[in-house]
Fold each of these.
Amino acid sequence: MRPQRQYMDSYINAVQEYIAEDRSVSWHPEILRTRFHEYLRVLRQAETDPLAGMAPATHYWLTIAGEYIGDLDLRHHLNASLRRYGGHIGYKIRPSMRRRGYGKLLCKLGIVEARKRGIGDILITCDDDNIGSYRIIEANGGILYDRVDNGRPVLTRRYWIYAED
Ligand SMILES: CC(C)(COP(=O)(O)OP(=O)(O)OC[C@H]1O[C@@H](n2cnc3c(N)ncnc32)[C@H](O)[C@@H]1OP(=O)(O)O)[C@@H](O)C(=O)NCCC(=O)NCCS
């Protein structure tokens, strides 16, 4: 589902979990609490009128039993940097909900949305040492294409999920 106001508290709790694991977040809890409507507006804008250099993207939340579980970005097309790092789909699961199969589920739902948008071959990338992520991609039909050096400490794996004929 698309982000919704009714899950704000659950989402803010998850953002606190992301901060606790040292993940960088662009919207901090105190800002979200007072300007959630603006956060939603910025996400909508990213779909049709992205910032310079960014591909248009739709942001989805996985929610279960009234709780935010994780989120996924679906980029509508690839630009040069997404082709090397980022791909069509990026996702994360809140730390307290990991290792329960939600990552696989979220990726699967993202692939369904990509197909609805007419995206044929889907590129998904992950760090070479991100075991959870590459297991998710492989479980969803990803075929390892290569590993590229993006000037980071680890190589980036690039997987394609090919369109069915
Ligand atoms: C990567 C991430 C999305 C995995 O989410 P998750 O909900 O734990 O994934 P799942 O429960 O669906 O697990 C998928 C598989 O990976 C394995 N796995 C997950 N995390 C793992 C870890 N840290 N170490 C080893 N295996 C792991 C699971 O056991 C499962 O294995 P299986 O194929 O034998 O069933 C989550 O750890 C996360 O959000 N990480 C931070 C953001 C990130 O790395 N996003 C991906 C960017 S490409």
Amino acid sequence: MTTQKARQIWALGGGKGGIGKSMVVGGMGIHIAQLGKKVILADTDLGGANLHTCLGLPLPKVTLDDFIKRRVEKLEDVVCETNCDNLGLISGAQEFLAAANPKHAQKIRLLKKLQSLDIDYLILDLGSGTSFNILDFFLISDNGIIMMVPEPTSVENTYRFLKGAFYRRLRRVTIYREIRELIELALDQKNIRGIKTPRDLVEEIERMDKKLGRILSEEAFKFRPKLIINQVRMDKDIELGFSVKNICSQYLGIQLDYLGYIYYDDCVWQSVRKKKHPILEYPDSKASVGIKMVANNLLQNQQFRL
Ligand SMILES: Nc1ncnc2c1ncn2[C@@H]1O[C@H](COP(=O)(O)OP(=O)(O)OP(=O)(O)O)[C@@H](O)[C@H]1O
Ligand SMILES: [Mg+2]
């Protein structure tokens, strides 16, 4: 049997926990499913999975854990129905100790199966942090999205996440030991070569080997992560997205697309308490409007503009 590739994979992550990633993944999924597209949400937050709760569902009987541990053969068998037409859920692993750190072969098997699901959109909830598992899922996706809240710690985590993802991507495209070692070195902020940013790294490689430097800088240009700001309270918070975008381009050499922002909204926690998703419970609330805006920008492959 031939399997058709999922048309698009989106993956949402962020350096910081508890900032609204699962809530937004759920909201984007519901919105796109309501537009008539076939969507599956997958909770790849191995160990901290709670996307089902964001969708107002009880803990599903089968989870990714069952697939990783081969208790079920097909990934399709762990897709659960939700309260929305066209929207399925693959719940994350609960028995986290073993599964949170799947072996490389298990991860590859999972990635391949996720890529071959016959649907329009697969949206991954990556959870927080910058572990290799998270970065790998972020990098295999067609749209790697990073979420930030307007707080200094979250901004700092965003830069750390982007740098980590960038270095891991470059590491994957080079087979040269010297270059790989240089990338490892660059991960240490106080490295002896004085490489502080991805831009410094690419320049250093260009000095060592012009041709390879050019290949890597082209790779760097192709890396276009997306940014969403959640829990916005004032205009300055909205503008922060543009500042982060500019800093990424000028100092890090990373081209970031700013998708838009979502207001801090009491409707969110009110619906969370009722175990309903805000986009269904309060579709016209400021938060729901924001979620639809960022999802539509992604669908139309465009950025947010003032
Ligand atoms: N725009 C918002 N307005 C108000 N509250 C919000 C908003 N976004 C998120 N929250 C609050 O933050 C809480 C955490 O959201 P969520 O579980 O989606 O975060 P997360 O980033 O997925 O967390 P984790 O890193 O633990 O997976 C929600 O229960 C909700 O109360
Ligand atoms: Mg979450």
